[in-house]
Automatic annotation (TrEMBL):
Belongs to the glycosyl hydrolase 42 family. Transmembrane segments: none annotated. Zn(2+) binds at residues 120, 163, 165. GO terms for molecular function: beta-galactosidase activity; metal ion binding. It comes from the Bacteria. This is Beta-galactosidase. SUPFAM superfamilies: (Trans)glycosidases (SSF51445), Class I glutamine amidotransferase-like (SSF52317). Keywords: Glycosidase, Hydrolase, Metal-binding, Zinc. It holds the Pfam family Glyco_hydro_42C. Residues 614-669 form the Beta-galactosidase C-terminal domain. One of its GO terms (biological process) is galactose metabolic process. The active site is at residues 155, 314. Residues 19-390 form the Glycoside hydrolase family 42 N-terminal domain.
Length: 671
């Protein structure tokens, strides 16, 4: 490829394979593994992710023989390797030497060795040892012909992100000194005059450990930022070693952008540091329509990648083993899930893991090769998927076409989740999910965008949950609307600045001008209480939240008919410059949220799509053509219109301007 650091070296197909942990098996089994990998069409596997204890058996004693043999075997069989740095599980000998590198919880408990990811990211001993094993791997395999991609660590940020030990405390103080320079600045940013929390010496500052009552919110928010930065620094250290020793081979680390799966990392910052963005996604098995969360995670990952293709490094062929009830996937669901990630920009579909383990904590987790062996439904579906992906090589490098953007900011989410908000029912993630689902059900493909990003390419921008907004974000949205954009904002957005300090003047400080209104008083609702919203051609029902909206240029479209804010506008529309800004001041669901969204779409000039509800339609556009991914999640076959004739790539059949989409199927039309 022309851009060597944007794609695994030497991989000339979509990535298909999984985590391969052959160290759990006698070497005779490896031969069978590669034979079956070839049968399934596997193109790349991730190896060595948890192998530190086998590679460095005591400090400085290395045993690379098995990995040499494994990489050679994979290479001889044409399977590319995503090679892990095993720094997510330091060996037992490391903790014997450095028990202080085990992380400490918020309430002072020191975690033990015996699981995984027990790391204090501020520990100099950990940092040195991790860089050391990475250096050894880089030296030995930096130019090995099998190595296509480096996989640093595993899912940074889980299962433990912050460590509250004394070493971390000292590191936090250095980070704060860098951020604020003076204690006066820090005291002002943290609002320490409240509850007498003034600091006169840097040494008095601690991590926000368990306090008798609500802790200082600005301190907690900075702690979350510090934790993200400390972990990111460790990624960068390993990445830089690999760039030096393995030039030309891209470096990734697997994210978990689904908002339910990793909360502690600001992936906007991480996306800028990796060569290739990669992601892991696991369905919430029991959730109805869980493919919507899959789509959301894929869209978020692509957005973190700046729209470039990304890689799905892990999902499951069937049940996981860590949810309360681990439901299997229905026939066909495996392919629909994998291809939905590809539709939304992944240039491959990889799994955890290749062969189901017989021992250890994850022995009941599904795999590409299940305990049942090859005479199994899962294996047959895996082989079929390999063939499907083989026929989709042409989509590689193409880009997803989005209709709208949703603003998302991890830092705002961290801030909103802190204690003592006006209602415990205010839930940023719930609103992000709800608005995303509403867009999904209108068949809109959305990008996610940082609030300060250039939004000018989007006719519609949705803001479901943006409690914290900087001045730059506020100006960005004003400019976006004034230039002709359509904005739709949900309640409790634009309330505080980056220090969790309420913006001066009436709420919502950062959005007053663009929305053309002020909020005189918040009026949260009782548990289960609903309010009626009238006007706008249809009566709507809200719950959780209402407020005293005072229009200052905005036009009321729906008004509260009852509840504490009766008589106040509930949903408003404001014209500013060439654009329009909608405000929704109560929590709306399903069809009611859709009613308002439909109005915003009309303002944005986004036409309705006549498609069945359970059909997902996403377009990727590349130099060689347009690829329309149509996924039918429903149990009945349907026919959908196409914008032109073409060839269906999975079946190889020509298609006209209508496409038959059988139940539970995926079709990809090259137009
Ligand atoms: C992932 C992890 C894998 C495996 C998998 C099981 O989060 O990276 O190592 O544990 O979950 O679902």
């Amino acid at each position: 490829m022309e851009h060597p650091l944007t794609w695994p070296v030497g991989l000339d197909a979509l990535a298909f394979g999984g985590d391969y942990n052959p160290e759990q098996w006698p070497e005779e089994v490896w031969q069978q593994d590669v034979r079956l990998m070839r049968e399934a069409g596997v193109t790349m596997v991730s190896v060595g992710i948890f192998s530190w204890a086998l590679l460095e058996t005591e400090r400085g004693s290395y045993e690379f023989g098995w990995l040499d043999r494994l990489l050679d075997l994979l290479h001889e069989n044409g399977i590319r390797v995503d090679l892990g740095t095993p720094t997510v599980v330091p060996p037992a000998w490391f903790y014997r030497e450095h028990p202080e590198a085990l992380p400490v919880s918020k309430d002072g408990l020191r975690y033990e060795f015996g699981g995984r990811g027990a790391i204090c990211h501020s520990s100099p001993a950990y940092q040195e040892a991790a860089a050391g094993i990475t250096e050894q791997l880089g030296l030995r395999y930096g130019s090995h012909p099998a190595v296509a991609l480096w996989h640093v660590h595993n899912e940074y940020g889980v299962p433990v992100s912050a460590c509250y030990c004394e070493t971390s405390a000292a590191h936090f103080r250095r980070w704060l000194a860098d951020r604020y320079q003076t204690l006066a600045e820090l005291n002002s940013a943290w609002g320490t005059t409240f509850w007498g929390q003034q600091y006169n010496r840097w040494d008095d500052i601690r991590p926000p450990r368990t306090t008798p009552t609500a802790g200082n919110p600005a301190q907690q928010l900075d702690w979350a930022r510090f934790t993200n930065d400390a972990i990111l620094a460790n990624f960068k250290r390993e990445r830089d070693v690999l760039h030096r020793l393995s030039p030309g081979v891209p470096v990734t680390t697997n994210f978990m952008t689904a908002l339910s799966q990793c909360e502690s990392l600001d992936y906007w910052a991480w996306g800028r540091e990796v060569d290739i963005v990669s992601n892991d996604h696991y369905l919430v098995a029991e959730a109805p329509r869980n493919h919507i969360n899959l789509a959301m995670s894929a869209d978020l990952t692509r957005s973190v990648a700046g729209g470039k293709p990304w890689l799905l490094l892990e999902h499951s062929t069937g049940a996981v083993n860590w949810q309360p009830r681990n439901l299997i996937k229905q026939p066909g669901e495996l392919a629909r899930n994998s291809l939905a990630h590809v539709a939304r920009g992944s240039d491959g579909a990889m799994f955890f893991q290749w062969r189901a383990s017989r021992f250890g904590a994850e022995k009941f987790h599904s795999a590409m090769l299940p305990h049942a062996g090859t005479d199994s439904r899962i294996w047959r579906e895996v082989v079929a998927l390999g063939a499907d992906l083989g026929s989709l090589s042409a989509v590689r490098g193409s880009r997803v076409k989005a209709d709208a953007a949703i603003l998302w900011d991890w830092q705002s989410w961290w801030a909103q989740k802190l204690e003592w908000r006006p209602s415990e029912d205010l839930d940023a993630r719930e609103r992000a999910d709800a608005w995303y689902a509403a867009a999904f059900d209108r068949h809109l493909t959305v990008d996610f965008a940082h609030p300060e990003a250039d939004l000018s390419g989007y006719p519609l921008v949705l803001v479901p949950a943006l409690y914290l907004m900087t001045e730059a974000a506020s100006l960005n949205l004003q400019e976006y609307v004034a230039q002709g954009g359509t904005l739709a904002v949900s309640y409790f957005s634009g309330i505080v600045d980056e220090h969790d300090t309420v913006q001066p003047g009436p709420h919502p400080g950062a959005l007053r001008d663009v929305l053309g209104l002020t909020v005189e008083e918040f009026a949260p609702l009782r548990a289960g209480e609903t309010v009626r919203l009238t006007g706008g051609g249809a009566e709507l029902t809200g719950d959780v939240w209402s407020e005293f909206v005072v229009p200052r240029g905005a036009e009321p479209v729906w008004t509260y008919a009852d509840g504490p804010a009766a008589g106040h506008p509930a949903v408003t529309r404001h014209t500013l410059g060439d654009g329009t800004a909608w405000y929704v001041s109560s929590r709306l669901h399903g069809a009611d949220l859709d009613t308002v969204l439909a109005r915003a779409c009309a303002d944005a000039g986004l036409a309705e799509r006549e498609l069945p509800r359970d059909v997902e339609l996403v377009e990727r556009v590349g130099e060689r053509g347009r690829y329309l991914f149509a996924i039918n999640h429903g149990s009945a076959g349907v026919q959908i219109p196409l914008p032109g004739a073409g060839v269906e790539l999975i079946t190889g059949q020509p298609v006209g301007d209508r496409l038959d989409l059988p139940a539970n199927s995926t079709r990809v039309v090259s137009i």
